[in-house]
Every structure is written in C-alpha cells, then in structure tokens.
Design brief:
Elements: H1 2-31, E1 76-77, E2 85-86, H2 93-103, E3 107-108, E4 111-112, E5 144-155, E6 158-166, E7 183-192, E8 196-207, E9 214-223, E10 226-234, E11 240-246, E12 251-258, E13 263-294, E14 301-331, E15 339-365, E16 368-395, E17 398-403, E18 414-434, E19 439-454, E20 463-464, E21 488-503
Parallel strand pairs: 11-20
Antiparallel strand pairs: 1-2, 3-4, 5-8, 5-21, 6-7, 8-9, 9-13, 10-13, 11-12, 13-14, 14-15, 15-16, 16-17, 16-18, 18-19, 19-21
Amino acid sequence: MNRLLALFFVATVAGGTALGQNQGTRLAATSSVRSSGDAVTARSSNVPRPAPSRRVPARLVADQSLLESAPVEGEVIYEDSAEPMVIGDSYSPEAGLAAIGAGCASCDGDGCSTCGVGGPLEFDLCNPYGFDGRQLCICLPSHGWASVEYLMWYASGMESPALVTTSPVPTAQASAGVLPSATTLYGGDNNILTDRLNGMRVRFGWWFVNNPNLGLEGEYVGTANESETFDRNSNGNPILARPFYNVLTGREDAELVAFPSVVSGRIRTEAESQFTGAAVRFRRQLCCSSGCGISPLTCGPVPAQSRIDATLGWRYFELEEGLAIREDLSSLDTANPGSFVLNDSFRTRNQFNGAELGVMWQGRRGYWSLDSYMRLGLGNTRQMVTIAGNTQTTANGATTTANGGLLAQRTNIGTYTRDQFGVVPEIGATVGYQLTQRLRLTAGYTFIYWSNVVRPGDQIDTSVNPNLLPPENPTQTTFLNPRFAFQDSDYLIQGLSLGGDYRW
C-alpha cells in the first residue's frame, strides 16, 4: 500500500512538471514574433493595440505610391479599424502588389462594400496614402456630383436651293442670273451654317442614401445662337439675281437685283440656328470591380476600378432655325422710277420628347479616368414651319405693302405643324485627370444624331408663278406656286468639350 502511494505521488509530480513546461512553451511561442525568409507581418495577442489612427510615416508624405518603394524594416503602418502591421526585412513591392490584388474588393449583391480595404496591407483604393488622397472611389456610389463643360461642336450644314446668282456683264438681260449657266453666290451646293457652335453643358446628380446603387441625374445642354450673313450691293455691275423656276414657261428664270441701266440693289440673307436640350434620368449601378493595375507612365502599381451603370429617363431636344432674304431695289429706268423692298422668311422649330435608355462605363487607373456612354432616345418630334413674305413699293412718294415676296407667296405663306416619330442616339467619351480628391479636369467627345427634323432651306419651293408677284394682277386661280410640303432631313451634331466636375 505504501509503495502504491509513493508511485502515485511520483507520477503526479512528474505530470504537473510536464504540463507546466508545455504551457510555458505555448506562452513563449505566442508572445514571440514569427520570422522567416518570406514573412512580412507578425501580430501578438499580448501586445497592446493602439486606437485606430491616420498616422502616416513621414516618408509617405511625398507624392509617391506606398507600393513604389519598400517600407523600412520594422515600420508600423496604421489604418482605420485595422491592426498594426510590422514590415519584415524580406518585403518587396512585387509581393505587396500580389497581396493587395488578392484582397481587393469586388462587387456583390449590395454593390462594392469596402472598395479595397481588407487586403494584407489594409490598402484603401479610394484614398491610398501613397497617392495623396486624389483617388475618387467610383466603385462605391455614395456621393453627389456636378460638372460644367464648354462645348466646341459642329452641326450638319443646312441645305438650300441656289438663292443668289451672278453673270458676267455682257450677259443679256433675259439670261442674266439664270441657272445653270449663272454662278451661284449663296446656297446651292454650298451648305449654310457650317461654322463651329459654342455652348455649355451642365450635369448634376446624387446617389440615394437609402439605396446607394440608385442615383438621379439632371442635364442641360445649349449652344449659342449661330448666325451667318451674306450681303451684296451693286449699282448694276456686277449683276445680281435671284433664280427660280418659272411655272408659266416651264424654264429656269431669275429676278434681277442689279443690272446695268435697269436696276440697282442690295441683297442680304441671314441664317441662324440654336440647339438646346435637357434630360432627367435615373442611374442604376449594375456591377463594378476594384483592384490594382500598373501605370504605363510610372511603371508602378496604382489603384484601378471600373463600373457599369444603366440609365433610364426622359430626354428633350429643341432645334430652332431661320432663313431670311431681303432685297432693296431702285429702278434705273427714268421712265419707270420707284423702289421696292422684298422680304422672304422661312423658320422652323423641332421639339423632341421621348424616353431615353442608356448604359455607362467608368474606369480609372491612378489619377486618370475614362467615362463612356451610349444612349438611345425614342419619342415624338413636333415639327413647325412658318413662312412669311411681303413687298413694299414706293412710287410717286407713296408706299404700299402687299402680302408676298418672291419665294414666299399667298400660296405657301402660313404656319404648319405635325408630329413625327423621332430617334435620337447619342454616344460620348470623357477623359479625366484627378486634381484633388473631389475636383477633376475633363476633356470629351460627343456625337448626337436626330432623325426627322425640318430645316428652313428644305422648305423653300423655287417654282414660282410670276403673276403672283405683288401687285397680283389678275388674280390667279391656276399654277398656284410656290407651294408648301413638309421636307424631312437628318440632323447631326458633334464635337469636343473641356470642363471639370466636382464630387462630394
């Protein structure tokens, strides 16, 4: 019995000693820093954790990436809601980049969650220290935006028939200014209104707080009133004329504005055009991705993100144009003195209202970004054409005014409206450079096509019955020309833009 007690005592002491040795070994292993040839971090549950901090090592204040130069051995990096990380002596930028790439966030059912935070280096893709906070997180839509752009656009020129012609002085009066032998000075094959359009585009919007994947955007675009003037004055030499087709003779003809010993005069044409538009659309984020890429400029790693949005909304466009022709004539025939003022005016207005569907892609790499979009508007185009004309005749000191000029007569004068189905596709791309965390400079290109619009030059009928010219005598009941009929055409507008946007 005594021997059994002795053996039990010895076994108990030996077991307690062994247990104490095992516990001491585990505590020592836990409190030590594990180090190996490729180890980059070590954490200890016994080391007090500092409060989350935004402390940045002094060497990172310079404008260079955290990944472009290896941290100093033993350096501690802090990040919000993250444990400190000690850099070992075997760290390399390549290893760090691979580690970050493995931890970069991606899109889930609720959109992008952390936008890059969570990798081994706790590297924030939206505001990385090494990139001095100039990176805007496009993957996580939790902000509003406003942009202003200066537009340098060009529109498709307005077509019109030949409106002013000339002929050499030896030409006979019956043939002066008559096509096709005459030379066209204005209209014809030379399109009208082909100069640059200057304008402005403003966009603004915000993402909903309760649903950060859904946003609302408004847009206004407008160009300055573009105008073009043609003005010629002659005492008879050179010859000036206005060509038309004579329905009574069935041949080309012309009205003389200036011809030696017959008439002197001045002819002036004015064309103008203005384009405006507005839109309200919802934006819905479809997918996005966050990661790390290589900058082609610095050959170093940079944050990279991309996203795709769908848009649905309402689009309005308006195109208002006019073409006016004025003649000031004085008779050089002493037997028939007098003066005349003729006015023809053609004005059009197109208003598009319709639904708009679109898709947008946004991507950024470092400080640079690229936005592109495609939109399609489907709806109604309200067309309006207004034709007016008059003639003032002064003879023997008395002035009378009659309805009708040359190409605008009682047979086509009036206001005409109709509705047509309209298709308005639009594409665009914008390159941006991030100046600050919120401010970005942009340069872009836009192309807009608008089907089924009416333009003033297309509404001119050059078939004229000379007996309808004021004063109309006798009253005509046949060959009622010129006449009006809607003539559709397509409208293209495109060009560059320069501006900036601000996000918050």
